[in-house]
């Protein structure tokens, strides 16, 4: 069975969504990122991954895979009939990688990461200045299409849906981009996406009430 190390509402939510969309069973390990501990046994998360970041996907053979883009593509390929990634040889396979990279670098690392981890205005000035231009890219792309890649939900949508969810608590109202607002509403209407978010929101409340 696959195992996912996650933190509630962190980028690992996209991996949970992908697992649930694929219908894959997995064991989930809650990680306290600030203390770098695993809730199961209060162990040092750095013993699981020296990067000390989620997601970490433990494969059936015991190997560990990190980085959202890689984890999401592995999950998609573990259940190809679910259609969460274009098949090898399909030109859209590269479009999938393009969007996974864009969300990971231009929204997550360039804006969400500094917003939630850095406190001084100097560190936040540049990310804040860039986010409007950054979001104009998926906004224009989704103006006349339902999904990021092709005509069906892929792991790239799981990744972008997570990022858009975090924008509001990060101080960005996506209502100013109607296509993004409508897109997020469509994603949240999907049963697997809705259930994954509800699970992690409840876990976040539990963690907040009982911090490590």
From TrEMBL:
Alphabetized PROSITE patterns for the sequence: GST_CTER, GST_NTER
InterPro entries (UniProt xref): Glutathione-S-Trfase_C-like (IPR010987), Glutathione-S-Trfase_C_sf (IPR036282), Glutathione_S-Trfase (IPR040079), Glutathione_S-Trfase_N (IPR004045), GST_C (IPR004046), Thioredoxin-like_sf (IPR036249)
Signal peptide: none
Domain GST C-terminal: 89-207
Domain GST N-terminal: 1-83
Pfam families in UniProt: GST_C, GST_N_2
Top-level lineage group: Bacteria
Protein known as: Glutathione binding-like protein
């Amino acid at each position: 069975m696959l195992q996912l190390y996650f933190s509630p509402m962190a980028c690992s939510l996209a991996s949970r969504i992908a697992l649930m969309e694929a219908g894959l069973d997995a064991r989930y390990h809650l990680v306290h990122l600030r203390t770098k501990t695993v809730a199961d046994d209060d162990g040092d998360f750095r013993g699981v991954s020296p990067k000390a970041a989620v997601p970490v996907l433990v494969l059936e053979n015991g190997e560990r895979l990190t980085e959202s883009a890689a984890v999401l593509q592995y999950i998609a390929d573990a259940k190809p009939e679910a259609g969460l990634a274009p098949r090898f040889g399909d030109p859209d396979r590269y479009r999938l990688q393009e969007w996974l990279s864009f969300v990971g670098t231009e929204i997550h690392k360039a804006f969400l990461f500094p917003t939630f981890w850095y406190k001084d205005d100097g560190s936040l000035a540049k990310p804040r200045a860039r986010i409007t231009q950054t979001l104009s890219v998926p906004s224009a792309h989704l103006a006349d299409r339902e999904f990021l890649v092709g005509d069906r939900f892929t792991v790239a949508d799981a990744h972008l849906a997570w990022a858009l969810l975090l924008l509001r608590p990060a101080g960005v109202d996506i209502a100013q981009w109607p296509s993004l607002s409508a897109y997020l509403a469509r994603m949240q209407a999907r049963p697997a996406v809705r259930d994954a978010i509800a699970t992690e929101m409840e876990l976040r409340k539990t963690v907040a009430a009982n911090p490590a």
